[in-house]
């Protein structure tokens, strides 16, 4: 058994604030897909980073959106189930966004269940220097954050400070039920393709796309077969595209990422099926 301490960290925030990008960069691998679509993370993603004398257990959650649109009960359950399991909450906020009365209420609802809340103020590279401090002061006057961490996830600025600030909240009592990198290879390969579908097809299809993945490890190549499952024939036509151009583009980009992941050649067979 390891003598390392453990810190359980929940990552919350509004859609597109940079939550998934943050966890991907901290762990230096693709754990959760990154897209400019709302609510692309449709379940909690859990992964562990060993940092100094601590195992930091990160849980990424779906973006919090308007309750009227928050139709997926599974997502709601996944999100709320984490409240009592964590040591601290990292609230990621896009500093280029304005703060409305509605947003203040929603942020308070996010912070209230947690004893320790950190503000990760993202996209600070897009602010002028003289605008950063007023933004920090404004956020801290409205909310009770233990730490405020200005970062630029895109430019990898300030992330070491995030990790250092987490360490004091680690404890020796470990949760043995937590699975390190519980999402398997099949899951990660599926997420690679989901990301390409979201990024290449704009708002033409629903955000929830089901993908079935089968992986065969051959001598010199990985053979991967994936079925993209849609609900309507019209969605199938959109994904395939004119003369198959869209699905070909999805496949090409996904295969490149898969080859980086496996560090070997990949043969990718993509099919689209209506169920």
Topology diagram in text:
Blueprint (H helix, E strand, L loop, with lengths): L4 E9 L5 H9 L17 E7 L2 E7 L12 H8 L7 E7 L6 H11 L5 E6 L6 H14 L4 E4 L8 H8 L18 H17 L8 E8 L3 E10 L2 H8 L4 H18 L2 E10 L1
Parallel strand pairs: 1-3, 1-4, 4-5, 5-6, 8-9
Antiparallel strand pairs: 2-3, 7-8
Helix pairs in contact: 6-8
Task: Describe what you observe in this structure.
By secondary structure, the protein is α/β, with parallel strands linked by helices. It folds into two domains: 5-169, 3-Layer(aba) Sandwich (Rossmann fold); 185-274, GMP Synthetase, Chain A, domain 3 (2-Layer Sandwich). The protein is 34% helix and 25% strand. It is built from eight helices and nine strands. The chain has helices spanning 19-27, 73-80, 101-111, 129-142, 159-166, 185-201, 233-240, 245-262; strands at residues 5-13, 45-51, 54-60, 88-94, 117-122, 147-150, 210-217, 221-230, 265-274. The strands form two sheets. Strands 2-3-1-4-5-6 form a six-stranded mixed beta sheet, sandwiched between helices. A three-stranded mixed beta sheet has the order 7-8-9. A hairpin with a 2-residue loop joins strand 2 and strand 3. Helix 6 packs antiparallel against helix 8 (245-262). The longest helix is centred in the C-terminal third of the chain and has 18 residues, at 245-262. The termini are far apart.
């Amino acid at each position: 058994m390891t003598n390392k301490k453990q810190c359980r960290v929940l990552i919350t925030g509004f859609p597109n604030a940079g939550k998934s990008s943050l966890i991907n960069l901290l762990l230096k691998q693709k754990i959760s897909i990154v897209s400019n679509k709302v609510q692309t993370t449709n379940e909690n993603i859990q992964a562990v980073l060993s940092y100094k004398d601590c195992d930091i257990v990160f849980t990424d959650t779906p973006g919090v959106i308007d309750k009227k649109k928050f139709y997926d009960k599974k997502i709601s359950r996944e999100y709320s189930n984490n409240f009592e399991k964590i040591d601290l909450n990292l609230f990621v906020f896009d500093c280029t966004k304005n703060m409305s009365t509605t947003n203040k209420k929603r942020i308070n609802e996010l912070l209230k269940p947690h004893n320790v809340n950190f503000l990760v103020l993202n996209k600070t590279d897009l602010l002028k220097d003289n605008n950063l401090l007023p933004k920090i002061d404004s956020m801290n006057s409205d909310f009770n954050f233990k730490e405020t961490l200005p970062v630029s996830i895109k430019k990898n600025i300030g992330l070491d400070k995030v990790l250092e600030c987490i360490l004091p909240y680690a404890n020796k009592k470990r949760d043995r039920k937590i699975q390190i990198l519980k999402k398997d290879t099949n899951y990660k390969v599926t997420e690679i393709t989901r990301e390409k579908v979201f990024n290449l097809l704009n708002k033409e299809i629903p955000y929830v796309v089901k993908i079935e993945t089968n992986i065969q490890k051959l001598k010199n190549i990985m053979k991967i077969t994936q079925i993209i499952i849609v609900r309507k024939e019209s969605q199938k036509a959109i994904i395939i595209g004119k003369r198959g151009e869209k699905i070909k583009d999805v496949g090409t980009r996904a295969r490149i990422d898969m080859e980086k992941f496996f560090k070997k050649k990949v043969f990718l067979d993509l099919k689209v099926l209506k169920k």
